[in-house]
Design brief:
Blueprint lengths: L1 E5 L3 H10 L9 E5 L2 H11 L3 E4 L8 H11 L4 E6 L4 H9 L4 E4 L4 H32 L3 H14 L4 H12 L7 E7 L7 H5 L4 H17 L4 E5 L7 E5 L6 H16 L5 E3 L3 E2 L4 H13 L10 E3 L9 H20 L2 H16 L6 H18 L19 H15 L7 H16 L6 H7 L4 H12 L3 H19 L4 H7 L5 H12 L3 H6 L1
Parallel strand pairs: 1-2, 1-3, 3-4, 4-5, 9-11
Antiparallel strand pairs: 6-8, 6-9, 6-10, 7-8
Helix pairs in contact: 2-3, 9-10, 12-13, 12-14, 13-15, 16-18, 17-18
């Protein structure tokens, strides 16, 4: 286990070093940084498991560092050490999963207790992760699957090259001192699913034969290795560590072999040349983005290079997508098939007129549609038919026909009345957004019905007024915060959706018979 101490005050860093019994917990390394930027560099190089951080620092403060750690190293345990009790400093520690918040000047007993708490949490979670990994490995002890997992973790940044380099060199022939690398990815879930169809939808078998074809081509130059990825959206990954300048030619060779053997061509995303091994994760990200951002409405070759200046397809189209999705959700809540089909018809015309439709956007769209339909028929299997022509390009006509067929299948017997589904949607929306300023008019606009209908249907189905339900939800959340935190009442009031602390106190007392302070004291 390794530790990183981030504080711009040297005496604070020295105090932490002095008080915590590192040897007792077998700490292998202790690193120091004076600001968030230095901390990021150290994290990327050494991956410490425990981080002590100050909140106010130059260049990058503690709040920004906590957010970065939460995104890039979510398993890391963080202990915040600050000279301020201000809510703006406490909030990031809560939001981004800090294990403790200590105030300066440091109390040695509190510091040791916080450190040992973090060590214990990490060890327990690591034991669970290792147990999960061992159980997974026991299910299938074949060596290729083991390396699929290790290489997948390597390109995704979940394991370092230093940990695997000797095994990679001995078993896979990967050079220890290559200068550059490039990565290519192939996905079976996108436009070119015809090969998957040929193997009756068996992703494992399809991936197996593709990996074999790729490795036969790569073996001639000992230029890299192909493996089945455990990462979503990239079933096959090709890691090149030599012949990097010939990567496009190699990918065309792979596609030629697939065409010759199985009669289809694959779309392949390809990264730039990146430093090895530092750039492996960057190359993987670039290759996936190159594939996911290809235009499904135009054929520009099968090798899709990453483009640095990729732009979003346009806020106008995004807004139109959101509008159509909301229309479909409301049509689904109505339970009327003809309304749903009219939305789909209108949507297909819109899709056909787009200049650009990327695979990432199409997959995101299908996921959101599936979530809306799953709420309607939770017991049903939501499956989208292929909507690509013989060239692997998107067909709005096939998409429309597939959607209509899906809606017709789902509409054959709905287990829940439309009004019940509507009230369920409203309750779930309130459960997720209770902290926001919420009015009856806002909810009515959100669900495209009148204010009167919102109140009447909610009361009719749930047996209580909508405003009472929202108040009860907020009071329950406030009780939890009063019991389990030391936050001030003004902070709790803000977190549960009340801007005015006095109004919050009145509502709380009316609901519970006690003021918030009396409740906390009790």
């Amino acid at each position: 286990m390794k530790v990183l101490i981030v504080d711009d005050e040297k005496h604070v860093r020295e105090a932490i070093r002095y008080f915590v019994p590192w040897e007792k917990h077998q700490i292998a390394g202790i690193y120091e940084a004076t600001n968030g930027q230095e901390a990021i560099t150290i994290m990327q190089e050494h991956q410490p498991e425990i981080v002590f951080t100050d909140m106010r620092m130059p260049l990058m403060d503690g709040a920004e560092l906590l957010e970065w750690l939460h995104t890039h190293y979510p398993n890391t345990k963080t202990i915040v050490i600050s000279g301020y009790q201000d809510f703006n400093y406490v909030k990031p520690a809560i939001v981004y999963g800090g294990t403790d918040y200590l105030l300066k000047p440091l109390n040695s007993k509190q510091l040791i207790a916080a450190a040992e708490h973090a060590f214990q949490l990490w060890q327990e979670e690591e034991a669970e992760r290792q147990q999960t990994l061992r159980q997974s490995m026991q299910l299938n002890v074949l060596r290729p699957l083991y390396w699929d997992k290790m290489l997948s973790d390597l390109v995704a940044g979940q394991v370092s090259f230093q940990e695997l380099k000797h095994s990679l060199s001995e078993e896979l022939g990967m050079p220890l001192f290559a200068a550059e690398c490039r990565i290519a990815v192939l996905s079976l879930q996108g436009a070119d699913c015809r090969l998957l169809q040929r193997f009756h939808g068996d992703v494992g078998l399809t991936s197996f034969v593709l990996v074999n074809v790729c490795n036969e081509v790569l073996a001639s130059k000992q230029s890299g290795i192909a493996f089945r990825s455990w990462q979503v959206g990239a079933e096959i990954v090709v890691l090149l560590w030599s012949a990097v300048s010939e990567a496009e030619e190699l990918m065309r060779g792979i596609n030629g072999s697939i065409k010759q053997t199985y009669g289809v061509l694959m779309d392949i995303g390809l990264s730039y040349a990146c430093e090895f091994p530092e750039g492996i994760q960057t190359a993987f990200h670039q290759a996936r983005q190159g594939l996911n951002e290809r235009n499904l409405l135009q054929r520009e070759g099968r090798i899709h290079l990453y483009r640095e200046t990729l732009s979003e397809s346009g806020s106008v189209e995004d807004y139109a997508f959101e509008t159509q999705l909301e229309k479909l959700k409301i049509a689904v809540l109505s339970g009327e098939l003809d309304k749903m089909e009219r939305v789909v018809e209108e949507w297909s015309v819109q899709l056909a007129g787009l200049p650009v439709l990327t695979e990432s956007r199409l997959l995101r769209l299908q996921k959101e549609i599936a979530e809306a339909l799953q709420r309607w028929r939770p017991e049903a299997e939501i499956h989208f038919e292929l909507c690509y022509d013989h060239e692997g390009l998107f067909s709005a006509r096939l998409w429309r026909d597939g959607m209509k067929a899906l809606l017709q299948r789902l509409s054959q017997g709905s287990p829940q009345p439309p009004d019940s589904r509507l009230v369920q949607e409203i309750r779930e929306y309130l459960d997720q957004n209770y902290a926001k300023d919420m009015t009856l008019q806002h909810i009515a606009q959100r669900f495209f019905i009148s204010r009167e209908n919102v109140s009447r249907k909610f009361k009719q189905i749930s047996g209580e007024n909508l405003s009472d339900y929202l108040t009860g939800l907020r009071i329950d959340k406030a009780k939890t915060l009063l019991q389990n935190t030391n936050l001030r009442l003004s902070q709790i009031s803000e977190l549960v959706g009340y801007e005015d602390e006095k109004y919050f106190s009145r509502v709380f007392k009316k609901a519970t018979g006690q003021t918030p302070r009396e409740y906390r004291k009790q």
